[in-house]
Amino acid sequence: MLKIWGRTNSINVQKAMWAVGELGLAHERIDAGGRFGGLDTEEFAQMNPNRRIPVIDDEGTVVWESHSIVRYLAAKYGAGTLWPTDPGERAKSEMWMDWTLADLQPAFIGVFWNLYRTPEEQRNWKVIRQGIARSAILFKMLDKHLEDKPFVGGQMLTIGDIATGAQLYRYFELEIDRPELPNVEAWYARLKEREAYRTHVMVPFDELKGRTGF
Ligand SMILES: N[C@@H](CCC(=O)N[C@@H](CS)C(=O)NCC(=O)O)C(=O)O
Question: pTM for the complete prediction?
Answer without folding.
Answer: 0.97
